[in-house]
Amino acid sequence: MPHGQDVEDDTADHSSKYECLECGAIVESETHPGECPECGGDFQNRAKSLE
Ligand SMILES: [Zn+2]
Description:
By secondary structure, the chain is an all-beta fold. The protein has strands spanning 16-20, 26-29, 43-45. The protein has a domain at 16-45: Single Sheet (Rubrerythrin, domain 2), CATH 2.20.28. It has a three-stranded antiparallel sheet, with no helix packed on it. Bound molecules: zinc ion. Zinc ion is lined by residues 20, 22-23, 25, 36, 38-39, 41.
């Protein structure tokens, strides 16, 4: 029963982008990066993964 399962495009990207509210640095991370390494500002989840 080979069903040609070549649909391996399951790019369930768990990471989302966070943008520093202070300097605008973009960080891609699975979890909240905490504070910006550049300026110590707060990160804001930029692109919420489509659910
Ligand atoms: Zn920053």
